[in-house]
Structures are given as structure tokens and as C-alpha cells.
Amino acid sequence: MFATPAYAQAAGGAGGSAIMQFLPLILIFAIMYLLLIRPQQKKMKEHQKMVSELRRGDQVVTQGGVIAKVSKVKDDKELEVEIAEGVKVRIVRATVSQVLSKTEPAAES
């Protein structure tokens, strides 16, 4: 008979579905996916495509900021680039950050 109003309100308000409780977490994950994860995956695919299309004669910039010209494509993971006249170094393909100028493929006869 002498129940306080706070005690009486707590007894009836314990309902609610589990989906409604997890909805904020689901929305946060969806927003993070759309704003962070998806654009990063797209950028990574573009970089992989750019690196796979490198060929002899392309002028590139490495992640270290060195401007070089591709002199030989060794294999899937390695390039030989010329950073100065007569100075050739081997680099990993993934370290190419930008292609400054592309060469046209040779015409097949």
C-alpha cells in the first residue's frame, strides 16, 4: 500500500525487444562501413590495379618520394627502376605510390 512512485514505475518498464537494444550498435557499424571501410577497400583495389599495369618506360613515384623510370619488370613483386642516369635499383612493386606518365604498349605486328 505504501509503494513509492519510483518502485511502481520500475516494475512495469522492464520490457523491450533485443533488436531494439542492438539497433544503435548495428547503425554504428553500418555507418563505419560506409564511411571508412568501403572507401579504403576501393582505394586499395585501384592501387593494386595501377601496380599490376606497370610496364617498362613508366615514370613513377615511390612511397619514399623518389621519382624513377621503370627499366625492367622483374616479376609480380619486383621492379628495376632507374633513379638517375646509369643508377638502377630494385624496388618492391607495392611501394609505387603514383604513376606520373604511362607509356603506350608496343604495336603488335
UniProtKB/TrEMBL annotation:
Record localization: Cell membrane
Gene that specifies this protein: yajC
Subunit description: Part of the SecDF-YidC-YajC translocase complex. The SecDF-YidC-YajC translocase forms a supercomplex with SecYEG, called the holo-translocon (HTL).
Any matching Pfam family: YajC
TM ranges: 18-37
Superkingdom of the organism of origin: Bacteria
Record family assignment: Belongs to the YajC family.
Signal sequence coordinates: none
Principal cellular location given in the protein's record: membrane
Keywords per UniProt: Cell membrane, Membrane, Protein transport, Translocation, Transmembrane, Transmembrane helix, Transport
Membrane topology: Single-pass membrane protein
PANTHER family: SEC TRANSLOCON ACCESSORY COMPLEX SUBUNIT YAJC
Protein name (Swiss-Prot/TrEMBL): Sec translocon accessory complex subunit YajC
Highest classification ranks of the organism: Bacteria, Pseudomonadati, Pseudomonadota, Alphaproteobacteria, Rhodobacterales
Organism (species): Tropicimonas aquimaris
